[in-house]
Request: fold
Amino acid sequence: MEQQKQLQSLSNEYQTLQNDMSTLITARQKLESQQQENKGVQKEFNSLADDANIYKLVGPVLLKQDTTEAKSTVDGRLEYIGGEIKRIEESIKEITDKSETKKMEIMQIQGAMQQQQGAA
Amino acid sequence: MAEAGKGNQINLDALSVQQLSQVKKQFDEEVQHLTNSYQNLRVAQQKFKDCVTSVKEGVASSVQDKTLLVPLTSSLYVPGKLASTSHVLVDIGTGFYVEKTTDDALTFYAAKIEELGKNIKDLENVVNGKANNLRMIEEVLRQKMLVQQQQGQAQQGATAAAA
Reply:
């Protein structure tokens, strides 16, 4: 019985880890697509003439923006997104390790339980 | 791709029916997801193509003096006139708009369409590969089921004969 309780709590923990994992993966995917979009914008900015007119959509209106300002906004965004991706990758790795350990623990307990059953 | 397929084939025979169903489910989901992405890319490409048509026909000098209806909502229009037939504002993503000449805008859209076309082609290959793998899995699964069924019948026959 003791073992069964332990197994229960372990698999609950494992489940939680898996849920955290899928949340992180979704976040990672979102960041990836934002990064792609911003990269496209950056590429477009770089190919623009210096006197090009750039507007930014703020709510329902388009505001005219300075070229250099717009460029630095996008650069800043890309930097931030890069950092976030790194951070999330680390969290993902951490959780993978953790859930791997939990899996091993669960398998150990299951093995012990089966042996006991065989002995009984 | 062919090699990976071969590796799969060897693996597949060693798997149990349950495991195979699991793998099949996973592949089903993947193929579904990829097909959806493929359709989304197609839609996006079509939108850019529409933009090209709009720039070509809607912002040409031939319509300079004609009034047009500007949609404020999907059911409310006001009459308007083109302020310029030489420049347009292009949405380049993340809320930024750039003023471009119509020619530049067309080049921009053409580049986008080409880029998407490349992605669509790549994705098409991936989807086909996955679909092939899926078919292989289904085939092996079907055979396994058949074998299992025959075994079951043989057993039943044996017990019936014994009785």
